[in-house]
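Final report, closing paragraph on structural work. Over the funding period we assembled a curated collection of sequence-structure pairs, and we close with a single example.
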Amino acid sequence: MDIRKYFYISITSSDEQEIIESVKKGIVFKGFNLWVLVFAIFVASLGLNVNSTAVIIGAMLISPLMGPIIGMGLAVGISDFDMLKRSFKHYALSAGVSVVTATIYFLLSPINEVQSELLARTSPNIYDVLIAFFGGMAGVVAICAKEKGNVIPGVAIATALMPPLCTAGFGLAQGEWMFFFGALYLFFINTVFISLATFLGVRFFRFQRQTYIDKKRGKLVNRYIMAIVIATIIPAVFTTVRIVRESMFQNRANSFISNELDFSGTQVIQRDISWSRNAIKVILIGKKVHESQIDSARANMRYYHLGETSLSVTQGFDSDSLSLLSLENAAIEALYQQDEQTIDELRFRLSALEQETASYRKYADLSEVVTQELHALFPTIASVSIGQSVRSYVADSTADTICQVRLYQTKKLNSADYQKLTDWLKARLGTQQLELFE
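Its predicted structure, as stored:
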């Protein structure tokens, strides 16, 4: 059986002209097209602002941004330089209008918090390159097919052309240049590799060139294309290497904690694994673990390729305390014995123990989230420690619970940024009783 016949694609000269005309119509941003883009940007900005994936996908479905990008790839592929100029002109227009529209929205929006959907568009990596390239390949095959179906809208969603422009507008409105340049870089990645995929597809299908180019000039064009591709992909490769190394570190650290810190009668209730600081912090509750056991576990870190990693173990409860698991098991046993009094007592003890550990969970969970947000808002902050303490007043024998935050930063904040940071932390942590240490 010849399997090649299932993959064979045939394009006639009349099909070729029809495809080129269809792409040319999608290039122009004027009148209705431009207004659709503006409204789609507003919808996408709203989705990013409220962290709604569904709204963002809806905005990408109605966005006409794919037209000029595919047009540039097709124009280079068929050597139609007039079409290339027109495509680039409308591409620049659409990108400029998108960023300005998003900037206006975020300047007027009362919600200025950095959401996860915004953060996701600021650190592109090699996977974004691959998504753009294979999405572009699907797109070029789709435009060559008579029945295009829903491939083009799908490509627009998969490559996420619109959200980076909205994120760039957010960065411009908030003065967050890392957001601005990171998002524009992601948009540029999508542009280059969708265009590259279109260019390769056109050459593969042997479209007739509109202008004759001699071999010398053809080689020069190919070199320019290769230079742009390499220059675009290099920063993404570095980002990917960092992500892979961090992921491997996380896996090794979790494996170490699971195997070496699994002591009888104890539970790991919190783990803080930091690749940037090369450190592992663990909080244990239950039966007290002897320091020699912890030292033995620390000595085994080299077997997990964590020899240079620091380990900090905090024990939240002494040996007389019961772990949550022990209390739950005791409650189940009492339930079978139909001893209501014992059940109520155990429930009370469980509730008290959960309240006692709530602060550990609350600030440990907050610390991980707040650290990422703080680094985005204040890039000089490398890490942050959040805890809770009790301040007692000798004069009137009263006490206050105070949230303490310690910053580790590469450069000290000025007074205006320090006040801005203090106000943000109070709002983010939901407390007015805050002490900030640098």
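The longest strand covers residues 381-393. Confidence is low (pLDDT under 50) at residues 318-323. We thank the funder for supporting this effort.
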